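Board notes (copied after class):
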Amino acid sequence: MAIDQAVLQCGERTLDLGRARIMGILNVTPDSFSDGGQNARIDEALARARAMVVEGADILDIGGESTRPGAEPVPLAEERRRVLPVIEALHAELDVPLSVDTMKPALMREAVAAGAGLLNDVNGFRAEGALETAVEAGREHGVALCVMHMQGEPQSMQRSPHYGDVVAEVGAFLEQRVADLQAAGVPRRQILLDPGFGFGKTLEHNVALFRGLPRLASGGLPLLVGVSRKSMIGQLLGARPVAERDPGSAVAAMLAAQAGARVLRVHNVSATRDALALYSELHDGQDNRGN
């Protein structure tokens, strides 16, 4: 599926979007739904990051605040303490783009200074000062922006999500945010879109949204899809616990790529790499072994 740009500029580094790319999740939090506490120490986080790059991650997404349903906000000082040393160390060591997963404009600025090349905001740059920060980061540092859809906020988003047509409404929201960013001075080529699976959506909403990915991708901007280990995977497989969701997550990532997604945000990089490589071998006849 054609997209407007084949390369996403992420600060000093680039991400080739000629095919689907793998974004490895690096949560430096004590309470994330899947891997909370596993990478809380900087040495643990760096070791996990190195391993994901060896496994095939094309970009790493570093987050210091859990956005699982019901999660409580993390103070700026604490999120800063968790995230910035990891970004600084990885930027110096690894030759892959780094993304920072945050809603806080102050941390966005500091993370870009530390080496982040992508701002990944689950709140769609709607917080006070976030839009201005995004414009500045893009203009001065060539940073890319990922705009996500979320109905409500993490503390309450799953209480009673409602839509008439979830695909149309999510698509309209993303289109409006793109228009707002462009009007503020952000070039279209610096924007990535995320439909926000699980963020203010029931299982039925998530399934409809997944089936609607080709429709969302038809606008030409690259899509980021993150369904790894989420409750929708567990529910669709018969109440599968988080620890047993990696095979289903890899299949979902492969199907998302087939539907037009260009960035796949995942926990298990190697399983996703193998699923994409096998699909490419059997379906497209392209030799992606070792990629």
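Comment from the instructor: The longest helix spans residues 166-184. DSSP finds ten helices and ten strands in the chain.
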